[in-house]
Amino acid sequence: MLNIVIFGAPGSGKGTQSDLLKEKYSLFHISTGDVLRAEIKNQTELGKTAEGYISKGQLVPDALIIDMLAGVLDSNKDSKGVIFDGFPRTLPQAVALKEMLNARGTDVSAVVALEVEEAELIDRLLKRGQISGRSDDNFETIKSRLDVYNNQTSPLINHYKEEGKYKGIHGMGSIDDIFGRISDVIEAI
Ligand code: B4P
Protein backbone atom coordinates (compact mmCIF):
# COMPACT_ATOMS: atom_id res chain seq x y z
CA MET A 1 0.00 0.00 0.00
CA LEU A 2 1.10 3.55 -0.69
CA ASN A 3 0.47 5.52 2.51
CA ILE A 4 1.46 9.16 2.21
CA VAL A 5 1.41 11.70 5.02
CA ILE A 6 1.00 15.23 3.64
CA PHE A 7 2.64 17.39 6.23
CA GLY A 8 2.98 21.15 6.64
CA ALA A 9 1.94 24.26 8.51
CA PRO A 10 -1.62 25.63 8.22
CA GLY A 11 -1.99 27.10 4.74
CA SER A 12 0.91 25.14 3.25
CA GLY A 13 -1.41 23.60 0.64
CA LYS A 14 -2.00 20.13 2.12
CA GLY A 15 -5.65 20.00 1.07
CA THR A 16 -4.94 21.42 -2.40
CA GLN A 17 -2.18 18.93 -3.17
CA SER A 18 -4.07 15.98 -1.60
CA ASP A 19 -6.95 16.54 -4.04
CA LEU A 20 -4.55 16.22 -6.98
CA LEU A 21 -2.70 13.23 -5.49
CA LYS A 22 -5.80 11.18 -4.78
CA GLU A 23 -6.82 11.47 -8.45
CA LYS A 24 -3.42 10.68 -9.92
CA TYR A 25 -2.59 7.70 -7.70
CA SER A 26 -6.15 6.47 -6.87
CA LEU A 27 -5.63 6.85 -3.14
CA PHE A 28 -8.17 7.31 -0.38
CA HIS A 29 -7.90 10.82 1.14
CA ILE A 30 -8.46 11.42 4.85
CA SER A 31 -8.39 15.06 5.96
CA THR A 32 -8.87 15.20 9.72
CA GLY A 33 -9.81 18.89 9.39
CA ASP A 34 -12.56 18.05 6.86
CA VAL A 35 -13.88 15.17 8.99
CA LEU A 36 -14.01 17.47 12.04
CA ARG A 37 -15.78 20.22 10.09
CA ALA A 38 -18.40 17.68 8.94
CA GLU A 39 -18.89 16.57 12.56
CA ILE A 40 -19.36 20.22 13.57
CA LYS A 41 -21.85 20.78 10.78
CA ASN A 42 -23.86 17.74 11.91
CA GLN A 43 -23.57 18.86 15.56
CA THR A 44 -22.43 15.40 16.74
CA GLU A 45 -20.93 15.04 20.24
CA LEU A 46 -17.44 14.98 18.69
CA GLY A 47 -18.30 18.02 16.58
CA LYS A 48 -19.52 20.02 19.58
CA THR A 49 -16.30 19.23 21.48
CA ALA A 50 -14.05 19.92 18.47
CA GLU A 51 -15.68 23.28 17.70
CA GLY A 52 -14.29 24.97 20.82
CA TYR A 53 -10.73 23.89 20.05
CA ILE A 54 -10.80 24.69 16.31
CA SER A 55 -12.25 28.19 16.71
CA LYS A 56 -9.38 29.02 19.10
CA GLY A 57 -6.77 27.53 16.76
CA GLN A 58 -5.93 24.73 19.20
CA LEU A 59 -5.57 21.02 18.49
CA VAL A 60 -8.43 18.67 19.25
CA PRO A 61 -7.26 16.18 21.97
CA ASP A 62 -5.24 13.23 20.64
CA ALA A 63 -7.54 10.50 21.98
CA LEU A 64 -10.56 11.89 20.10
CA ILE A 65 -8.64 12.27 16.84
CA ILE A 66 -7.04 8.81 17.04
CA ASP A 67 -10.41 7.09 17.62
CA MET A 68 -11.94 9.08 14.78
CA LEU A 69 -9.13 8.10 12.42
CA ALA A 70 -9.32 4.40 13.29
CA GLY A 71 -13.03 4.48 12.42
CA VAL A 72 -12.37 6.12 9.03
CA LEU A 73 -9.55 3.65 8.21
CA ASP A 74 -11.73 0.65 9.01
CA SER A 75 -14.48 1.88 6.73
CA ASN A 76 -12.02 2.00 3.77
CA LYS A 77 -10.07 -1.23 3.98
CA ASP A 78 -9.93 -1.93 0.25
CA SER A 79 -8.10 1.17 -0.96
CA LYS A 80 -4.70 1.01 -2.75
CA GLY A 81 -3.34 3.40 -0.18
CA VAL A 82 -4.19 6.43 1.90
CA ILE A 83 -3.28 10.12 1.96
CA PHE A 84 -3.21 11.37 5.54
CA ASP A 85 -3.83 15.13 5.36
CA GLY A 86 -3.48 17.00 8.67
CA PHE A 87 -2.62 13.86 10.65
CA PRO A 88 -0.40 13.24 12.57
CA ARG A 89 0.04 16.61 14.27
CA THR A 90 1.64 15.43 17.53
CA LEU A 91 4.11 12.73 18.51
CA PRO A 92 1.42 10.54 20.18
CA GLN A 93 -0.59 10.75 16.92
CA ALA A 94 2.48 9.64 14.93
CA VAL A 95 2.99 6.68 17.25
CA ALA A 96 -0.70 5.77 17.02
CA LEU A 97 -0.65 6.00 13.22
CA LYS A 98 2.30 3.62 13.01
CA GLU A 99 0.55 1.16 15.34
CA MET A 100 -2.71 1.35 13.39
CA LEU A 101 -0.98 0.77 10.06
CA ASN A 102 1.31 -1.99 11.38
CA ALA A 103 -1.75 -3.79 12.81
CA ARG A 104 -3.17 -3.73 9.28
CA GLY A 105 0.08 -5.11 7.80
CA THR A 106 1.32 -1.82 6.35
CA ASP A 107 3.23 1.37 7.29
CA VAL A 108 3.77 5.03 6.36
CA SER A 109 5.52 5.05 2.96
CA ALA A 110 6.67 8.69 3.05
CA VAL A 111 6.03 12.02 4.73
CA VAL A 112 5.74 14.70 2.06
CA ALA A 113 6.35 18.02 3.80
CA LEU A 114 5.34 21.29 2.13
CA GLU A 115 7.84 23.96 3.16
CA VAL A 116 6.37 27.48 2.91
CA GLU A 117 7.47 30.82 4.43
CA GLU A 118 5.31 32.12 7.29
CA ALA A 119 4.32 35.40 5.59
CA GLU A 120 2.97 33.41 2.62
CA LEU A 121 1.02 31.08 4.97
CA ILE A 122 -0.69 34.04 6.64
CA ASP A 123 -1.44 35.65 3.30
CA ARG A 124 -3.03 32.45 1.89
CA LEU A 125 -5.19 31.83 4.95
CA LEU A 126 -6.38 35.46 5.17
CA LYS A 127 -7.34 35.28 1.48
CA ARG A 128 -9.27 32.06 2.04
CA GLY A 129 -10.90 33.62 5.11
CA GLN A 130 -12.56 36.21 2.89
CA ILE A 131 -14.60 33.45 1.21
CA SER A 132 -14.47 30.30 3.36
CA GLY A 133 -16.55 31.34 6.35
CA ARG A 134 -14.18 29.13 8.43
CA SER A 135 -14.14 30.18 12.07
CA ASP A 136 -10.34 29.71 12.17
CA ASP A 137 -9.34 31.75 9.08
CA ASN A 138 -8.95 35.11 10.86
CA PHE A 139 -5.70 36.83 11.82
CA GLU A 140 -5.80 36.08 15.57
CA THR A 141 -6.65 32.39 15.14
CA ILE A 142 -4.14 31.97 12.29
CA LYS A 143 -1.43 33.25 14.68
CA SER A 144 -2.38 30.63 17.30
CA ARG A 145 -2.52 27.88 14.67
CA LEU A 146 1.02 28.80 13.61
CA ASP A 147 2.20 28.80 17.27
CA VAL A 148 0.59 25.39 17.77
CA TYR A 149 2.29 24.14 14.62
CA ASN A 150 5.71 25.43 15.73
CA ASN A 151 5.40 24.03 19.27
CA GLN A 152 3.46 20.79 18.90
CA THR A 153 3.65 19.67 15.27
CA SER A 154 7.07 20.71 13.95
CA PRO A 155 8.91 18.23 16.30
CA LEU A 156 7.56 15.55 13.95
CA ILE A 157 10.02 16.77 11.31
CA ASN A 158 12.96 15.29 13.22
CA HIS A 159 10.94 12.22 14.17
CA TYR A 160 10.32 11.36 10.51
CA LYS A 161 13.84 12.39 9.46
CA GLU A 162 15.15 9.84 11.95
CA GLU A 163 12.85 7.21 10.43
CA GLY A 164 14.19 8.14 6.96
CA LYS A 165 10.68 9.01 5.75
CA TYR A 166 10.81 12.83 5.58
CA LYS A 167 10.69 14.30 2.06
CA GLY A 168 10.87 18.09 2.13
CA ILE A 169 9.23 19.86 -0.85
CA HIS A 170 9.58 23.54 -1.77
CA GLY A 171 5.94 24.57 -1.30
CA MET A 172 6.00 28.04 -2.90
CA GLY A 173 5.10 28.80 -6.51
CA SER A 174 2.30 27.49 -8.70
CA ILE A 175 0.08 24.62 -7.57
CA ASP A 176 1.08 22.62 -10.67
CA ASP A 177 4.81 23.12 -10.13
CA ILE A 178 4.50 21.98 -6.51
CA PHE A 179 2.45 18.98 -7.60
CA GLY A 180 5.20 18.08 -10.10
CA ARG A 181 7.78 18.11 -7.29
CA ILE A 182 5.58 15.87 -5.13
CA SER A 183 4.95 13.44 -7.99
CA ASP A 184 8.71 13.10 -8.57
CA VAL A 185 9.17 12.16 -4.91
CA ILE A 186 6.33 9.64 -4.95
CA GLU A 187 7.53 7.98 -8.12
CA ALA A 188 10.95 7.48 -6.54
CA ILE A 189 9.47 5.55 -3.57
P1 B4P B 1 -7.03 21.60 8.84
O1 B4P B 1 -8.29 21.60 8.11
O2 B4P B 1 -6.07 20.47 8.60
O3 B4P B 1 -6.35 22.99 8.56
P2 B4P B 1 -4.85 23.50 8.37
O4 B4P B 1 -3.72 22.64 8.75
O5 B4P B 1 -4.87 24.80 9.02
O6 B4P B 1 -4.64 23.47 6.86
P3 B4P B 1 -5.69 23.87 5.77
O7 B4P B 1 -6.38 22.66 5.31
O8 B4P B 1 -6.56 24.95 6.26
O9 B4P B 1 -4.80 24.54 4.70
P4 B4P B 1 -4.05 24.01 3.48
O10 B4P B 1 -2.68 23.67 3.94
O11 B4P B 1 -4.81 23.01 2.69
O12 B4P B 1 -7.27 21.70 10.40
C1 B4P B 1 -8.15 22.67 10.98
C2 B4P B 1 -8.18 22.49 12.48
O13 B4P B 1 -8.74 21.18 12.82
C3 B4P B 1 -6.82 22.51 13.19
O14 B4P B 1 -6.38 23.82 13.47
C4 B4P B 1 -7.16 21.71 14.47
O15 B4P B 1 -7.86 22.50 15.41
C5 B4P B 1 -8.12 20.62 13.98
N1 B4P B 1 -7.39 19.40 13.61
C6 B4P B 1 -7.27 18.89 12.34
N2 B4P B 1 -6.51 17.77 12.35
C7 B4P B 1 -6.16 17.57 13.65
C8 B4P B 1 -5.33 16.60 14.31
N3 B4P B 1 -4.73 15.62 13.61
N4 B4P B 1 -5.15 16.71 15.65
C9 B4P B 1 -5.76 17.68 16.35
N5 B4P B 1 -6.54 18.63 15.80
C10 B4P B 1 -6.73 18.59 14.46
O16 B4P B 1 -3.97 25.44 2.72
C11 B4P B 1 -4.73 25.89 1.84
C12 B4P B 1 -4.88 27.37 1.42
O17 B4P B 1 -3.78 27.83 0.64
C13 B4P B 1 -6.07 27.30 0.45
O18 B4P B 1 -6.83 28.46 0.55
C14 B4P B 1 -5.42 27.16 -0.94
O19 B4P B 1 -6.24 27.67 -1.96
C15 B4P B 1 -4.16 27.99 -0.76
N6 B4P B 1 -3.05 27.46 -1.58
C16 B4P B 1 -2.66 26.17 -1.68
N7 B4P B 1 -1.58 26.06 -2.48
C17 B4P B 1 -1.28 27.33 -2.92
C18 B4P B 1 -0.26 27.87 -3.74
N8 B4P B 1 0.69 27.11 -4.32
N9 B4P B 1 -0.24 29.19 -3.93
C19 B4P B 1 -1.18 29.99 -3.36
N10 B4P B 1 -2.18 29.55 -2.55
C20 B4P B 1 -2.22 28.22 -2.33
> Within the CATH hierarchy, at the fold level, what is the topology?
Rossmann fold
SSE string: EHEHHHEHEHHHEH
CATH architecture: 3-Layer(aba) Sandwich
Radius of gyration: 16 Å
* Beta content: 5-15%
Dominant shape:
globular
Question: What is the helix content?
Answer: 55-70%
Instruction: Please tell me the total number of domains.
Output: 1
- Judged by helices, strands and strand pairing, the structural class is alpha/beta
Topology:
Blueprint: E1 2-8, H1 14-25, E2 28-31, H2 32-41, H3 45-55, H4 62-74, E3 81-85, H5 91-103, E4 110-115, H6 118-132, H7 139-153, H8 155-162, E5 166-170, H9 175-187
Parallel strand pairs: 1-3, 1-4, 2-3, 4-5
Helix pairs in contact: 1-9, 2-3, 4-5, 6-7
Structure description:
The structure is a single chain. With 189 residues, this protein is an alpha/beta fold. It has a single domain (2-183), classed as 3-Layer(aba) Sandwich (Rossmann fold). It contains nine helices and five strands. The chain has helices spanning 14-25, 32-41, 45-55, 62-74, 91-103, 118-132, 139-153, 155-162, 175-187; strands at 2-8, 28-31, 81-85, 110-115, 166-170. Strands 2-3-1-4-5 form a five-stranded parallel beta sheet, with helices on both faces. α1 crosses α9 (175-187) and α2 crosses α3. The radius of gyration is 16 Å and the shape is globular. The mean pLDDT is 96. Bound molecules: BIS(adenosine)-5'-tetraphosphate (B4P). The site of BIS(adenosine)-5'-tetraphosphate has 28 residues, from α1, α2, α3, α6 and α9. Residues 8, 10-16, 32-33, 36, 53-54, 57-60, 65, 86-87, 89, 93, 124, 128, 136, 145, 175, 178 line the site of BIS(adenosine)-5'-tetraphosphate.
